[in-house]
Amino acid sequence: MITASDLMKEMIDLTQETLVRMQDIFKKAQSGEASLALMSEAMGTIAKSSGEINGISAISDTVKRQAEENNKAGEGGNAVSLLSEQIKIAMNEQKSAISEIAKTVSSINELAQENTAKGLDITETSRALVGKVQSINKEIDGFSPET
Question: Do the Cβ atoms of 43 and 67 come closer than 8 Å?
């Protein structure tokens, strides 16, 4: 993977090479050794190197933007992870609350069954008492002066 520092190093190397070429051309031009064709060719090479430097600079800018986007994506991923953890905690709390509600409903059901059983016992006892009262009333009627 190419890093920004690798690109910068390559840009520096190309710049240094270009400067050395330019110095050579100017020395040859001053001494009269360089022909117009050689100077033109050297200037073309310099222009090409300049274009390469611009291309590397554009790549460097793209790498920087990509790194920024990667950081944003990482931050977004962290936010999603945090929200996911919060949802998990909330779901566990809801699960616990539902369990407590189920226990409470079960207790209410047991109490209702106990109350129903006790109500039936009271009804049976009341019927027995009514029967005894009726029996006692019959006996009392048997002692009444009318007979």
Answer: no
SS3 assignment for the chain: CCCHHHHHHHHHHHHHHHHHHHHHHHHHHHHCCCCHHHHHHHHHHHHHHHHHHHHHHHHHHHHHHHHHHHHHHHHHHHHHHHHHHHHHHHHHHHHHHHHHHHHHHHHHHHHHHHHHHHHHHHHHHHHHHHHHHHHHHHHHHHCCCCC
For the stretch 70-129, pLDDT in tens is: 888 888 888 888 999 999 999 999 999 999 999 999 999 999 999 999 999 999 999 999
Q: What does pTM read for this prediction?
A: 0.43
| Residues whose CB falls within 8 Å of the CB of residue 22, separated by 6 or more in sequence, listed in order | 42, 46
Query: How many residues are given for the chain?
Result: 147
* Centroid of chain to Cα 22: 56
Q: Between vectors from CA 35 to CA 32 and to CA 41, what angle results, nearest 5°?
A: 130
Please state, in angstroms and rounded to a whole number, the distance separating the CA atoms of residues 21 and 44. Answer: 11
- Are residues 69 and 8 in contact, defined by beta-carbon separation less than 8 angstroms? no
